[in-house]
Amino acid sequence: MTGDGHTLRGVGATPLAGVGTAVRYDPDADLTPPDPPDPETVDEARERERFETARDHAREALEAQRAETAARVGEDEAAIFDAHLQFLDDPQVEDGVAGHLADGLPAEHAVDRAFGEAIAQFEDAGGLMAERTDDLREVRNRLLRRLLDVAAVDLSALPAGSVVVAERLGPADTAQLDPERVAGFVTATGGRTSHAAIMARSLGIPAVVGVDGLEAVEDGDELVVDGDAGEVVVDPSPERRERARETGTGAEVRHEPVTTADGRAVEVAANIGTAAEAAGAREQGADGVGLFRTEFLFLERDSPPSEDEQYEAVVDVLEAFDGDRVVVRTLDVGGDKPVPYLDTEEGSNPFLGVRGVRLAPGERPDLFETQLRALLRAAATDAGDGLAVMFPLVATVEELDGVLDRVQAVAGALDEAGIAYRIPELGVMVETPAAAFVAGDLAERVDFLSTGTNDLTQYVMAANREDERVADLHDPLHPGVLRAIDRTVTAAHEAGAWVGMCGEMAGDPDLTGLLVGLGLDELSMSAVTVPAVKERVTGVDTDEARALAERALAAETREAVLEVLGNGR
Ligand code: PEP
Ligand code: MG
Questions:
Q1: Which of 199, 232, 231 is nearest to 72 (CA)?
Q2: Sign (positive or negative) of CA dihedral 436, 442, 443, 447
Q3: Cα angle, residue 439 at apex, residues 437 and 440 outer, rounded to 5°
Q4: Does the CB atom of residue 331 touch ligand 1 within 6 A?
Q5: Which superfamily, per CATH, for 6-27+153-247?
Q6: How far is Cα of residue 510 from the mean position of the Cα atoms in its chain?
Q7: What is the 3-state secondary structure (H, E, C) of 1-58?
Q8: pLDDT tens-digit profile of 397-449?
Q9: Does 502 participate in catalysis according to the annotation?
Q10: What secondary structure letter does DSSP report for 277?
Q11: Distance of CA 393 from the midpoint of ligand 2 (Å)
Q12: Ligand 1, atom 4: nearest CA belongs to which residue?
């Protein structure tokens, strides 16, 4: 394709820009089964066995990829593969395959047709359901590759500076991309919440999805991928190329704290899972850490980390942030984050069972105590001034009172033993509807609240955050969730506590005005979105943002909220 600076528009998935050379990738290449043979000649039992073998193989591969993604990218992103495992065993697809096998089709045709039918149904449903068809296709392709003996393209081995151009990319494809090598990716399908987009944000890869006119881009075309503007520039001018190269991100990295245009301070912090991520978060200009998910210290091992190990990990992060605030969340396992060696009963509904503070201190006060000792000691170090500690999945005042008693008890024990300690700022995550309703009572007991909108949305909407079939309900822009957030912010401020947000919602630059208008004092997100959110904060007028929030809070439907926002969300 020729033309100087021809621009294609789509949806920016990552607020990053990259420059590189187009490499077209077709995940469906060579996966169309040849014409089926005469049904009389097909051995149904043998074909069923071939299907079962392919499915076992796919399950193993998915489980391995899940574990690798958890280690390399993060637990939330790894959970995407749970959706694939669900599709692999979906009863409707299974019935479809069985029906086609009974009609005398070979396994590859039965798979192709049964998945084709499910994909058509999801497409008809439209909206966020339609975004999930990429996942169904990826599962189908895994099975077909095995049945047709077609090797998968190795995306991790692309030449440096490649921009992957595809009709669509699934999370397994995206997880293979090496952020150090690829310059970005662009897809014709997908939206901001598609799995490829979520994965791109976590990996820090420039990406634009849902691009119109992508079929005209050819292998070897030079491209700018501007994930901030949602643009793909074909044959970019030298100036455009330079601009993307220079900044690397669509937004300037600001290392100083920012205020709104009329001077209100809003802290923009990063979510991290390991101490190693702290330096990268600092480079993106994060003012601090709004959520350190300490459960990662407990995963991928056979026994819990020692007090000293935990102390060192926290001190490393505190030192990287040099006195700026670092909010450490106490152990949040259970539910979607089981830790096998803790040997806890999953229960019939793990999301409503023993997780967060119900597990620690709840069932395992020993684990909680060890972690608190590490935290109170870390608070007394040179860099410890910035430490804040918050507790996950609190639903009652009694739970919080119990937790606070334990903090005092641990402090007393350290005191008696002559070990240096300090009680840091303490806070509560608002992740349950109950916590939102009693936010004022909770806030009176602590220094701050932090709204965990991933779980808050799940529980307010009764929509499992991992179940693709209810993905359109799992959106914090539903009025029920927005009003729960509003209630939380108001109650916290009335009680004299500050209030932040550390769910995915906080990192969407298109929602920054709304969140500032709701009164949040701090927003914490994947480090890669920090520059774009800081930039948006600087453009906000507080009065206008409050008026926008009022209109959004008065809206009766998610559609009406989107209309109020009117900014491409
Ligand atoms: C949340 O629930 O919004 C949150 C930040 O916690 P996690 O995603 O780790 O459950
Ligand atoms: Mg949570």
A1: 199
A2: negative
A3: 115
A4: no
A5: Phosphohistidine domain (3.50.30.10)
A6: 16
A7: CCCCCEEEECEECCCEEEEEEEEEECCCCCCCCCCCCCHHHCCHHHHHHHHHHHHHHH
A8: 999 999 999 999 999 999 999 999 999 999 999 999 999 999 999 999 999 99
A9: yes
A10: G
A11: 7
A12: 452
Q: Look up residue 310 and give its amino acid.
A: Q
Contacts 24+ apart (CB under 8 A), 66-71: 67/300, 68/175, 69/171, 69/175, 70/299, 70/300, 71/300
The answer, yes or no, to whether any atom of ligand 1 lies below 6 A from the CB of 226, is no
| CATH (residue range 39-148) | 1.10.274.10
Cα of 562 from ligand 2 centre, angstroms: 24
Contacts of 564 (CB under 8 A, 6+ apart): 548, 551, 552, 555
Residue boundaries of the structural domains of the chain: 6-27+153-247, 39-148, 261-565
C-alpha closest to that of 498 among 510, 506, 489, 508: 489
Q: What was the pLDDT predicted at 409? A: 98
Q: Is the CB of 290 under 6 A from ligand 1?
A: no
Q: Which atom of ligand 1 is nearest to the CA of 452?
A: 3
Tell me which of 283 and 422 has the higher pLDDT.
422
Give the distance (Å) from ligand 2 centre to CA of residue 432: 9
Q: What is the dihedral of CA 106, 110, 113, 116, to 10 degrees?
A: -130
C-alpha to C-alpha distance for 203 and 108, rounded to whole angstroms: 34
pLDDT higher than 80, residue 461: yes
Ligand 2 is an ion; residues with CB less than 5 A from it: 431, 452, 455
For the Cβ of 453 lying below 6 angstroms from any atom of ligand 1, the answer is yes
The 3-state secondary structure of 491-512 reads HHHHCCCEEEECCHHHHCHHHH
To test the pocket of ligand 1, the residue of 296, 461, 464, 502 to mutate (highest count of ligand atoms within 8 Å of its CB) is: 502
Q: Which of 274, 355, 455 to mutate to test the pocket of ligand 1 (most atoms within 8 A of CB)?
A: 455
Q: What is the mean pLDDT of residues 537-555?
A: 98
Ligand 2 center–CA 143 separation, angstroms: 33
Least trusted range by pLDDT, from 38-42, 68-72, 177-181: 68-72
Does residue 195 carry a catalytic annotation? yes
List the beta bridge partners of residue 448.
427, 498
Q: pTM value? A: 0.72
Catalytic residue among 109, 195, 474, 478: 195
161-210 per-position pLDDT tens digit? 999 999 988 777 888 888 888 999 999 987 776 777 878 887 889 999 98
For residue 464, how far is its CA from the centre of ligand 2 (angstroms)? 12
Residue carrying the six token digits 């009764």: 462
Q: Is the CB of 502 under 6 A from ligand 1?
A: yes
**CATH top-level class for 261-565?**
alpha beta
Nearest protein CA to atom 1 of ligand 1, as residue: 452
Give the C-alpha separation, 459 to 454, whole Å.
9
- Which residues contact residue 67 at a Cβ distance below 8 angstroms, ignoring those fewer than 6 apart? 78, 300
